[in-house]
Amino acid sequence: MKSLTIILGDITAVKADAIVNAANTSLLGGGGVDGAIHRAAGPELLAECRLLNGCSTGEAKITKGYRLPADNVIHTPGPIWQGGDHNEADLLRNSYKNSLDLAEIHGCRTVAFPSISTGVYHFPLDLAAPIAVQTIQEFLNHSKVIEEVQMVCFDEITKRSYEQALNKLK
Ligand code: ADP
Predict the structure, then answer these.
(1) pLDDT, tens digit, for every residue of 72-129?
(2) Which end of the chain has the smaller Cβ count within 10 Å, N or C?
(3) Domain total for the chain?
(4) pTM as predicted
(5) Domain encompassing residue 60
(6) Residues with Cβ within 6 A of ligand 1?
């Protein structure tokens, strides 16, 4: 049975075939979940990221996980919220979709996501959560590779928002 589950936790502690990093376009590290992933993975992660020449918003690139419990890290810069009329919804959908495509190409069966763009990028949580769960669920329904996706929420408010969005979908 394929599953999408919402959990409260720290994504750097999640053992999965791939965890997703809410990166910035430089792929050279930042604050929030990006900083936490780089700290936990060790300097080898930054060294590999330096070879990637950055990444456009909504696209995704993969590296190894180094000292993380996860085997791989998929880096995707989500959109910065600019009021909603700058294609933010499509770009956020692309971040989830392109991350899952890449996970599938690399044979990942288990994937964990943070709440992309809802931190310092200020995408409203009540708009981001339905986009995330719809995109993931649709992908899971058709995927022959990915079996389990976890949304790893760092706080209760975020977790509740994704749970509500998932309940509405069912
Ligand atoms: P963005 O720039 O895409 O908004 P942020 O890292 O600022 O990315 O925030 C995205 C989400 O990740 C926020 O909900 C934030 O609370 C959460 N977050 C921060 N650290 C972690 C972590 N270690 N594990 C999971 N989520 C985290």
Answers:
(1) 999 999 999 999 999 999 999 999 999 999 999 999 999 999 999 999 999 999 999 9
(2) N
(3) 1
(4) 0.98
(5) 3-169
(6) 10-12, 22, 32-34, 36, 78, 114-121, 152, 154-155, 158
